[in-house]
Amino acid sequence: MQKSDLPSKLCPVCQRPFSWRRKWAKDWDAVRYCSERCRRRKAGA
Ligand SMILES: [Zn+2]
Question: Which of the two ends of the chain, N or C, has the fewest CB atoms closer than 10 A to its terminal CB?
Answer without folding.
Answer: N
